[in-house]
Design brief:
Number of domains: 2
Helix content: 55-70%
CATH class of the largest domain: Mainly Alpha
Radius of gyration: 25 Å
Distance between the termini: 23 Å
Strand content: 5-15%
CATH topology of the largest domain: Alpha-lytic protease prodomain-like
Number of strands: 5
CATH architecture of the largest domain: Up-down Bundle
């Protein structure tokens, strides 16, 4: 990794194994599985098939509601495709221009899916509000049956991604999309049944708005975290003050500056820092041990440390010398 200042000859890189360190760190942290390729393939196939069935029944039953929901589910297929493409791109090898590869695409995909999902629920909320003034006809049996199938399809798809939702926000985006669709379908079935027996047409928009509130609440964290990572901020779950204290406590370290911690992808974190060690340059064992300690304690798998020993030629990036 290139030096950040003129002391190029003094750089010492201490790299931990670049594993999939998650962003909720600590002892015993369970990392997300490395690949969800099969889950994406099954999920996309199930949902494309469901969209085809839903659209067909929508045409045959002349149901605008079914056709609209088919379009909504088709947009969720797009969300799955975006997340899958990002996962594949993240595995590409680095190049001369993309020196980290395309790992950051997983962060962009998570951000896209968060925004996409919020726009979708915004449309649902708008439709629900309009129905208070103009109540829609009670959902027919065909609509309810298709919605029940939607619960099954989307529920299975969400389950395929559930195990990785905590360790990878790209996978979390896919999970939330499918879980949200399952919730919307469940709302259609429940509201439809109650309205058939009570005639309470106002229940349909109320249930829709309640589902929207739940989805917004669960999606807000995805939006916040993906936006944070896209701005190269310290990933959630890592305490930058704790990282600083840990590095300052290493044997022989008199001072520390130019500390940076950021996400290389939704599952990998990087750290660079300048260590001031007046007692002399450490050996490779010190650097390897430091990198290992950072990985074990904070889950940061890609560490680069620059060692500076001379007080006569201060680093250009030291706090007193930053322009």
């Amino acid at each position: 990794m290139a030096s950040h200042d003129a002391h190029a000859g003094h750089d010492h890189e201490a790299h931990g194994s670049d594993g999939h360190a998650g962003h909720s760190h600590g002892p015993g942290h369970a990392h997300a599985p490395a690949s969800f390729g099969k889950a994406f393939a099954i999920g996309i196939a199930l949902n494309v098939g469901f969209v085809a069935v839903e659209a067909t029944y929508g045409v045959l039953s002349n149901s605008v509601a079914l056709l609209a929901d088919a379009g909504h589910n088709l947009s969720d297929v797009l969300g799955l495709v975006v997340a899958w493409v990002a996962m594949v791109l993240a595995k590409r090898a680095p190049s001369a221009r993309y020196t980290y590869g395309m790992k950051g695409s997983s962060i962009l995909a998570a951000l896209f899916n968060a925004v996409f999902l919020l726009v979708a629920v915004g449309a649902i909320a708008w439709e629900a509000i309009q129905r208070f003034g103009e109540p829609a006809p009670v959902a027919g049996k065909t609509v309810m049956i298709v919605a029940a199938v939607g619960i099954l399809v989307n529920g299975i798809t969400a389950w395929l991604f559930a195990s990785g939702a905590k360790g990878d926000i790209n996978i979390k985006g896919a999970f939330l999309h499918m879980a949200a669709d399952a919730a919307v379908s469940a709302g259609v079935v429940i509201a439809g049944l109650v309205i058939l027996y009570t005639g309470w047409t106002w229940l349909d928009p109320v249930v829709s708005l309640a589902i929207v509130a739940v989805i917004v609440w669960s999606t807000w964290g995805l939006l916040r975290d993906s936006l944070t990572l896209s701005l190269a901020a310290v990933p959630p779950g890592i305490d930058p003050d704790a990282v600083r204290s840990h590095l300052e406590g290493l044997p022989g370290v008199a001072a520390l500056h130019d500390l940076h911690v950021w996400a290389m992808s939704t599952t990998e974190t990087c750290l660079t820092a300048h260590l001031v060690m007046p007692g002399g340059r450490p050996d490779d064992a010190f650097l390897m041990t430091a990198a290992k300690g950072i990985k074990e304690r904070f889950g940061i798998g890609h560490t680069t440390l620059q060692v500076e020993t001379s007080a006569d030629t201060p680093c250009a990036l030291a706090p007193d010398h930053v322009v």
